[in-house]
Specification:
282 residues, TIM Barrel, eight-stranded parallel sheet, 10 helices, globular, binds zinc ion
Amino acid sequence: MSITKTRIGFTMHPLWLTGTSLKEFLAPLQDAGLTAMEFLLDAHQREWDQFKPLMTACADMGLYLSFHFPYSQPYSLDGFNEKKQVPSIGELTALLSLAQEYCVSADTIPVIVVHGAKSKTSSRARLYADTLAFMRWALDKFPQLLFAMENLGPAAAGEIKIADTRQEVLALTQDLADPRVGICWDLGHDALHHRSDLPSSQWLAKVFHVHIHDINPTGLDHFPLVYDQVPYKAWLPYIQSSHIPGSVCLEIKGNQLRGWKIDRINRSLIESIHWIKELLDE
Ligand SMILES: [Zn+2]
């Protein structure tokens, strides 16, 4: 068995700490192979005031931090190219400034996962330009951070979503042509699109970060790996050979697991991390 350098994390949420301390919660996960953590930078989510102290506490415990740029309302890149986007530049700057605080060494530079612009009223060409404009602004404003364009799940009826095809994700990284821009390969989203083939070697070479999550029997994604609906076994071994600056992150959502008992959350997280580590080490 080879020792992999690929970091393994999951999406942190204050909800996971119900009735326990961070240290107690993390101990069995670190034993299972946890070395990273991802935080959603959405100042409008519940419990947001608890996020910053948690980020610092996780970094202090030696975990690598990555961040997910917000994608739910009121955050939208729609109109960014014409400076008509809804969140103010000041608000977007404040969010990315939080991530920048964790650039403490060359080895800890956070990867920021970004969704392309989406809209029910704008054209694909305009949304593509909005996405490029946002990325150019972010790259210029935050010269230390790394960014990863994510392949997105299927668009809702009547909606256009930039980067919902592999080709468009690659085209964005090629148009931006910046070594600080790569791809966040979301395995769950590929499965939602019923893609079973591997991305091209050109595409895989740009992967900075990975999202992995399962799909429940009703077709809802972002669950721990308990349903076996995504071909992780076929895809994850392709991660280990290339060094990625981010992590393989089990992307779960606080709100979706609100109905789960804390024991079930703990168990499914430990088992998922353990399984990812085994697959990467194979
Ligand atoms: Zn994702």
